[in-house]
Amino acid sequence: MVNSAFVISRIYGGVLKIYLLLIIAIGFEVTGTLFMGLSNGFSKVGPTIVVFSCYLIALILSIVILKKMEVGYFNAIWSGAGTVLVILLGILLFNESINFLKLFGISSIVIGILLLNLRTNKKKSEVI
Prior knowledge:
Layout: H1 4-38, H2 45-65, H3 71-94, H4 100-117
């Protein structure tokens, strides 16, 4: 007889690993994007190396993640969370502008990501 607690921990452990990898991948993508602005059109060697390294790591992690997650779902979370983080970090680190429309757009993205997580149609092979 199979221990149900073991099965549940294996399923949710897989989900947590995929989400953790997704968070890490988004972090590398956001870091690469921020350093792209610092690279001055790839004319500064240090930031340029960081950009390409971060994007390469993010790409490798994406390939691993997409073995267990639907591509449309992945892309929505990836692009939405990445966009929100880049905007917020741009405001905090680079004194970029902030206004009502920007805040409304960020809120809309966050709501969309939350709604995607509430979906009920999941592929059987998907861990999420």
